[in-house]
């Protein structure tokens, strides 16, 4: 078991799940299968933090703005640009 690196095999996970879970409570743990990283096991606080960061990045992007709101923004910008005169 590769406890010092924070990386474990799927075989380790089936044999020593308690120790791996304990390690994942302290820091994210990588689970490998056939020498390739396949999964990350992390505590719920880290997961929730990552979700919040991801949600914050998605909020207010052009991809998430409704067509109606985008049309209103374009109208306001065009109106502002036309009033420079």
From TrEMBL:
InterPro entries reported in the protein's UniProt record: Antitoxin_Phd/YefM, YefM-like_sf
Pfam families in alphabetical order: PhdYeFM_antitox
Domain of life from the UniProt record: Bacteria
Protein family (similarity comment): Belongs to the phD/YefM antitoxin family.
Annotated function: Antitoxin component of a type II toxin-antitoxin (TA) system.
Record protein name field: Antitoxin
Protein source organism: Peteryoungia ipomoeae
């Amino acid at each position: 078991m590769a406890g010092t690196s924070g990386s474990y095999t799927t075989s380790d996970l089936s044999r020593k799940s308690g120790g791996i879970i304990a390690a994942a409570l302290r820091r994210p743990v990588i689970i490998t299968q056939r020498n390739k990283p396949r999964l990350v096991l992390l505590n719920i606080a880290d997961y929730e933090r990552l979700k919040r960061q991801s949600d914050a990045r998605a909020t207010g992007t052009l991809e998430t703005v409704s067509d109606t709101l985008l049309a209103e923004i374009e109208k306001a910008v065009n109106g502002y640009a036309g009033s420079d005169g």
